[in-house]
Amino acid sequence: MEGQSKKIVQPVRRNLEFNLPKERIGDWHAGGAHITHFFNALSIFFPDGERFFIDSVRHYRGRIQDPALKESVRGFIGQEAMHGREHEEYNQALVDKGLPADRYGRFVLGLLKFLSRYSPKITQLAGTIALEHLTAILANMVLSEPRILKDAEPRFAALWKWHALEETEHKAVAYDVFQEVMGGGVRGYIHRCLALLTATFTFWLLVIPFHIGLVRKEGQALNIRGWFKVMNFLWGSPGVLRRSIPDWLDYFKPGFHPWDHNNAHFLDDVDALVAEVGAYGAAA
Fold first, then answer.
1. What is the DSSP string of 39-78?
2. I want to staple 80 with a disulfide (CB 3.0 to 4.6 A). Which of 50, 65, 131, 169 is the partner?
């Protein structure tokens, strides 16, 4: 039955600091600048996007009756706050390199402020669960396909793996809040499906020009080999986006729940990652 909670784990707030080597911001991925800046373009969305997610879920916290879900919401808010903080530092490294992340970030912030002011709160929550689905399926690719971060600069790789693990850990929280508020009926189903279509279109409509802009500013716009490599990375092998399509489509099943994709076994790696990041901090 749609709306039935299938929570597997409780999200835990972890206060990790990655001390990123800022001089590597333009080439930290072993695949080169084009793949590096694909990830960098994604990072631009996170600080203000995470705050939008927090606000949309927090608005309904008083209507949650399930004590376990209330605890999950606290963990969700804590994790998203930490993600925002670390990606602010990440994005500042882009700005310090002379890349237009601040200008792109202001555009994202303006769009989110417009939505916060003029769209209904339930629409904001529907948008949140749609974008949480997008991040969850991309996180699953990061965790399940070692080639995605193979030979990347270790601290950047650790940050993306940490983000992927925690997105996995809390991937059902906002969804369960939405289901508790809207119920499992047709209206809620249509609302969340329309939100995913809208969020997906809008997200990639922004990611693509941000990515191109970062590469162009880096002086790599005419590097055809670089563009071929990133297209192969996304759509060929390992095919980050191509292989995510079935999971994206599953969202449209009437009885869908994020934990239908039970990848909780990846969370067994959390403690080792925390220890790895702690060692980076000690060495800083």
1. HHHHHHHHHHHHHHHHHHHHTTGGG---HHHHHHHHHHHH
2. 50
